[in-house]
Amino acid sequence: MSAAVRCSHGARSAASCATAESDPCLRCGACCAAFRVDFSVHETEELGGSVPQGLAVDVTPCIARMRGTDHTRPRCAALTGQVGVRSACAIYEWRPSPCREFEAGSDACERARARHGLAPLMP
Ligand code: SF4
Ligand code: SF4
């Protein structure tokens, strides 16, 4: 995201071995509905990366963005489920680098949770 980015968490794939009990991200997804998610166009499938082309929009010749993350009420097009209840990233294995680098419990994570009225992860 331009401001920060998502998770190694992310809302994990439903196919992940993690459970909602062991992984709070599965009951969250707030960061996937809080920030712009920008990354190099080279991470898109079209240019040899893994992010499905239909879920990304070009911002500049060098930068792509996850679709939906620049809306007034941001929500990544790859996010499934309901924020704060149960959510998952539909492209978890193929998500862009900002999502892989985002850390649960970070300041940005807590800001995203607060934005959605969720309690701090690390009180
Ligand atoms: S690609 Fe997945 S992890 Fe990244 S913002 Fe979208 S839903 Fe979240
Ligand atoms: S905001 Fe934090 S707890 Fe929620 S899904 Fe993202 S990293 Fe996980």
Features:
123 residues; alpha+beta; three-stranded antiparallel beta sheet; two-stranded antiparallel ribbon; 5 strands; binds iron/sulfur cluster; Zinc/iron-chelating domain-containing protein; Puta_zinc/iron-chelating_dom
Report on the architecture of this protein.
This is Zinc/iron-chelating domain-containing protein. The chain is α+β, with helices and mostly antiparallel strands and 123 residues long. It has one domain. The chain contains two helices and five strands, in the order βββββαα. The chain has helices at 97-101, 107-115; strands spanning 38-40, 56-58, 63-66, 79-82, 86-89. It has a three-stranded antiparallel sheet, with no helix packed on it. Strands 4-5 form a two-stranded antiparallel sheet. The longest helix has 9 residues, at 107-115. The radius of gyration is 13 Å and the shape is globular. 37% of the residues are buried. Residues 1-8 have low confidence and may be disordered. Bound molecules: iron/sulfur cluster (2 copies). One iron/sulfur cluster is lined by residues 6-7, 10-11, 32, 37, 66, 76, 78-79, 89, 91, 95, 99.
